[in-house]
Amino acid sequence: MTDIPAYFRYWGKAKKDPEQSGPAYHLLPYHCLDVAAVGFWLLEPDKELCQRLASRLSLSPEWLQQFFVFCLMLHDLGKFLRGFQGLVPHMSPKLVEPDSRCDYLVRHDALGIGLWIKVLEKQLEDLISKHELSLLRPWLEIVFGHHGQPLETSKAKKAVRSHSLEEDEIAAEAFVRAVINEWMPDLEPLEVIDKSSFKLASWQLAGVAVLADWLGSDQQHFLYSDTETSLTTYWQSVALPSAEQALASAAFLPKSIRPFNSITDQFDFITSPTPLQNYAQTVALEAEPQLFILEDVTGAGKTEAAMVLVHRLMAQGVAKGLYVGLPTMATANAMYERLSKSYQSLYGDEVLPSIVLAHGASKQSEAFQQSINLSEQLTDKQYDHDDVSASAYCNQWLADSRKKALLSDVGVGTIDQALLGVLPARHQSLRLLGLADKVLLVDEVHAFDPYMQRLLESLIQAHAAQGGCTILLSATLPFSSRQRFVQAFQLGGGWNINEQRLPVIQEKDAYPLVTQVRQGVIKEEAVETRQSVCRTVKMSRLPDENEVMEKIKTAVEQGQCVCWIRNTVKDARESYQRLTDEEWLAKDKLTLFHSRYAMIDRQAIERDVLARFGKESAQVERDGQVLIATQVVEQSLDLDFDVMITDLAPIDLIIQRAGRLQRHTRDSTGNVISGSEQRATPCLYVLSSDPELVENSQWLTQTLPGTAYVYPDIGKLWRSILQLQKRGSFTMPTDARDLIESVYGIDAVDIPENLEHASMEAFAEQKVQRSMGEFNLLCMERGYSYKSAAHNSGWDEDIHIPTRLGAETVDVVLVKEVEGKLQPYADSGAYLWALSQIKIPKAEWKKAEKLISPEWKQRIDTLKEQVSALKWLEIWPLVAELQSVYDEKDGWNFGKEAL
């Protein structure tokens, strides 16, 4: 090239370590083409993603690919400004020199849109009409927002002049003109795009831009080049082949789906399907987005039935993968263990699909690790403290397997990571993109409070809007909740904007029940349940803890295994300590299990609990064993106790807990047998005040002082124990629906006057929680724009965006000092930092972190710089006096008084 264009004097990527071999920088025009080339392959016209987006926008897939690739070529225009170029000065005399007159106070992505609006739109009117420029701008706002959040254009426009020189603007214009002349398609199709359709599609397009930028920044595939050549030559000879190689080695290529034959092909332990599972095998499915709500008793095989539906939907081409969202880490762990044994049956033998647990525990697909885990790639130089390079941010983000699970073929984790897709959290668009071609399977939906339920409704609506299928599982679900989930899916499908004309659910009494929703159709079908889970459970109220202790002692003397579910961690610890001091109970017969353990210890306790009380446990493991636990055992874990004692809780949770009482058929000593149950009729013991004696507002506090903190609606608690005590027993599944509606329904009995005030306060708080959910949610109809978070204070990192209210938690990693170096607390396993992680109540953490000395805080900051997986986490060093706060048996116990 004889006349080298001015745009070749600007760098786009710089090496973190100048001593690395090869060029010190990558030319900015080349990086722009690298990212666009990734977009080219992501949006191949024959791929479902491109076809789905094109169909929504009434465009041809070929044109959409060509046009969005053109837009991606302009994504980093903000780097042409001298303020950015001065961040890494003097790399080569061929590059522009830094200029002290130019600031760098605004990030380069925002500067890009500012440069376009403030300067380039006017300069390009000879090539693109004003009208076409107005149609083009929203698309460019998407690609300029490639760092995970849309941009506030007003501030960006004001900052351009203070961040650039005139020659920077001239160079940027020259690059844009070159791209226009070579790659811009006819813009006439922009005229036919419906604005509302574009806004809904913009969320996925934003995810494509983020993913393209991340993959296009991978030095393993896009080698740095500082040698000038024509843009077309680089595009054909370097960018496109490198991008194709990057995508081929990543986990985003389509995988063949195995045809569905029968449930026994998926689960070899099933010989006779339950009625619900048989329904899942035979129900008519259309090749379109659908919602299923499966309600059946605990132990009826809902998970396997749901997986049959997942497989059939995938086989029909409606989905390519699966994300399972659970309410807690314990339930996610249990679900992962179940799916890890069967997920391969969804795909052809010739492929290795990826499965990722959203806590990074173990058994992650090695192929997935080697491909999408970009934390192994070389990191570009970080531009500024508030302007992280794409590869650096990718490393930090994907080093956290909670997020990586959304991009794998099969992901399992807490529902929180999916809920962040409808909140103003950075990179939420990537979450939605990851979910776009997956079935969203959410278990234990009854466990969500009003805030989370409102978020889930929005997620269901957004998922339906991008053509996704959703399956919800619950043993017990109030009619009102089911109604809202159905309506959310209908609205997301866009089948009828007028809510009054949407078909509504009708069935209020049948149980078990399946609700199926597709375009303009609702089908509600009652099903039978598994005969072995049809049973009557006696109920007995225990008035105080002394009687509980006596009941436990009697059971232990009879060689029975016992579980006492306490509503707070504080109560669980106190009961555990009291039992530890009892001479009649051997120390090796007592186990404590709650939520505040480092992952490695929590998993060890889970394994031990499953060994002692799981389906395969026998008399030798069960004899006289006592488990003191919190809510961690009430969902998903396949546990079976001879005696179950529970603190009073809402009726739906009581039913859940009862599902762990004599769950499997055993002989009188506790060994699993075939045939009839030989243990005595199961009896659920409930620790509670007498519902017939409500003398004042402190009715429950006298017996369970901490329960009102966890379940503040005293009225629902009173109704729950009243119904149980009046009945003396309940039969499943016959009584399930009536029990639920007797507590949650509009015809439920009036609560005592003494409890009205507390109950009304709780009801008001529930309305506030739901309103908070509404307040925090993105307005998806506004599209990928800064204004979509208008009800909120703005966009932020995901750790600052609450997916749960009340007892907000922070993620803390425990570290220890070994030979002067900080190491993860976990010392075995493949993902030691993840295994060292623990969730702590936010208020408690604020108090605890004040004990960390300035010297340790400095060492912690250094550690975070060295380990990208720790970027967004808190650190607790187990050293000196700080060491006593955590114990592998007791867990996190700061202050000894926390709930």
Taken from the alpha-carbon principal axes, the silhouette is globular
Sheet of most strands: 8 strands, mixed
How many beta-strand runs? 23
CATH topology of the largest domain: Rossmann fold
CA distance, first residue to last residue: 71 Å
Range of strand content:
5-15%
Number of domains: 4
Overview of this protein structure:
In the central section; belongs to the CRISPR-associated helicase Cas3 family. In the N-terminal section; belongs to the CRISPR-associated nuclease Cas3-HD family. This is Putative helicase. One of its GO terms (molecular function) is ATP binding. With 899 residues, the protein is of the alpha/beta class. The protein folds into four domains: 6-15 and 23-248, Hypothetical protein af1432, CATH 1.10.3210.30; 271-526, P-loop containing nucleotide triphosphate hydrolases (Rossmann fold); 535-732, Rossmann fold, CATH 3.40.50; 807-892, no CATH class. The protein is built from 33 helices and 23 strands. It has an eight-stranded mixed β-sheet, sandwiched between helices. Helix 28 packs antiparallel against helix 29. The radius of gyration is 29 Å and the shape is globular. The chain starts with 10 loop residues before the first strand and ends in a 7-residue tail after the last strand. 52% of the residues are buried. The model is unreliable at 360-379 and 387-399 (pLDDT under 50).
Write the layout of secondary structure elements.
Blueprint: E1 11-14, E2 25-27, H1 28-42, H2 48-57, H3 61-72, H4 82-85, H5 108-123, H6 130-144, H7 153-163, H8 166-183, H9 195-215, H10 231-248, H11 263-266, H12 275-282, E3 291-295, H13 302-315, E4 321-326, H14 329-339, E5 355-357, H15 366-371, H16 390-398, H17 401-404, E6 410-414, H18 416-419, H19 428-435, E7 438-442, H20 450-465, E8 469-474, H21 479-493, E9 513-518, E10 521-526, E11 535-542, H22 545-557, E12 562-565, H23 569-580, E13 590-593, H24 599-613, H25 619-622, E14 626-629, E15 643-647, H26 651-658, E16 683-687, H27 707-710, H28 714-727, E17 729-732, H29 736-744, H30 753-776, E18 809-818, E19 821-824, H31 832-835, E20 837-841, H32 842-848, H33 854-866, E21 874-877, E22 886-887, E23 891-892
Parallel strand pairs: 3-8, 4-6, 4-7, 5-6, 7-8, 11-16, 12-14, 12-15, 13-14, 15-16, 18-21
Antiparallel strand pairs: 1-2, 3-9, 9-10, 11-17, 18-19, 18-20, 22-23
